[in-house]
Write a structure and sequence with these properties.
The protein is α+β, with helices and mostly antiparallel strands. Helix content is 31%, strand content 31%. Helix 1 packs antiparallel against helix 3 and helix 5 runs antiparallel to helix 6. It is elongated and about 185 Å long. InterPro entries: TRIM45/56/19-like, Znf_B-box, Znf_ZZ_sf.
Amino acid sequence: MTEVNSLALKAQVPKTCNMCEETIEVKYRCLECNFILCERCRRFHEKIKTIDFHHIINIKDDNASLTKLFHIPILPCLLHKEENCVLYCLDCEETACTACISIKHQKHTLENLKAYYLTKTSEIENGKDRIELSILPSLIRRLKRLEHLIIFHTHKYEKAKQKIYKWEKYMKDSIANVLEKQREELIQRLDINFTETKETILPEISKLKKAKSEIEDILINIDTVMSCGDVKRVNDVRGSLHSQLVEIKSHTALKIRTKIGNFCEKEIGALPLLGEIKFKDIFQMKHVSCIQTKLTCIDKIVSLEGGLVLLRNLENNMIHEIEINSTKNTCNELDHFELDVKDISALNSGDIIFISPDKSDIRTITSKLIDSNPRKDFFDSTTFYQTHPQIPTAIHVSPDNNIIICTVEPSRESIPMDEPCHVEIYILTSLGKQISHFEFNRDLFCFPDKISSIDEMICIADSISDYSSRVVTLNKSGEVKWIYGDTSTSVIISDMVHTPLGNLVILQVCQSKLQVLDPDGGRLRILDLTNLNITHPYCLSIYNDNYILVGCGANDSNLHILEYIES
């Protein structure tokens, strides 16, 4: 390791290029020749033939590369004991010395063993870094999210069951109360009728019993008179008998009208329903964090791998790369650079892809340049794709790393906002190869200015007047699947994002509301951001799988984190 340290120390001392001996701005070292090289001489040096090939590295990586090289074990050649292996045969997949070339590896593809070792170990380290910084954290976040989701579903399941039991008891008690009341009413009606009947019949019974007794007395008197032979008594009885019979007849001639109460059972018709189970999509949001970024107006957000975020400050066109600490409600700025963009996104590689106002080219800044160059601007970018004469208005990178671009005709500014214009949509691979191209000749779109996508569905925010926007959703063939919104609704869409389950979250900037649509365009939820003390919202971004970042124009806490649950 002494040799490594000495070489590393030498690399820190300013030197001129070992080839031209003029340029001081040396950036590279040849590990085989131990030459320090400038940019121009590096290309010439690579062409100089040598037995051990040239392996040129960036000086800033010198220490790490040298350390790896000195950890490579010396491998004696199995065929030539006096030689050490300095080559690797890609065809035979084995190490070799220079003497082996003419024996076993003629016309084979050979690579310097040190270079091959460094390349492969770098690939392994890059894979390890990606696992540790991106894949594993994402997996842990997804695991926690699913664990939280099963707890959430268990709670909702138990709550729904208890609600059914409670409602069943309520229905039983309600039905019992109704039946009890009906029973009381029916019996009361029977009681009233029976009382009235008794009050009608019983007095007549008393009268008839009295008349019966009187008749029996008359009959006894008649029998007595008839047997005594007394003419005077017979005449007396005969005279009173007529009046008595008339009176008795009047009692017996009285007719009584009464009604009988009869209970008629009613069959149960339509049974009362306890209720029904309605299944609906879950989408819930809550405010979890509020961060002071010290930026005056955040109008664009791009989430990168590893929890990094790009913010655009509208006031000065500066792009800020930050790292969020949501537990402490703070952020750490890692970098910033000026870039005038109309829209911006990022590829899975970390490369930035953007469009500029009124320009027809799509440009990129590589992640390597972002990491190495502290002063980046438009001129550091390279042209990725050209849509001339069409002018791009929106750009989006899909979950499968394809690029979707919306463009309008160059004369769009001369056309009234509420009139359709010629729109072309391009879908490209991350390498710039065209997958699809859709053309709409003033028959659908007015001014498309935002794009989002999920699976094979493309959602485009289309401004159809100065005061209203709509969402036009296309399938993979470019055909309209559904449209949400029209000129009757004064809604301006400033941004929108898709969740992993295909729900579309729309930011209505004037109303400060988030509207959530399901994959078929049905409304799931509306969230009023003012109730969460979120003011002047401008932009959205999905962050770490189950969070939504909201960028605002307020000067204080202008970056908000919403956690959402969907299922």
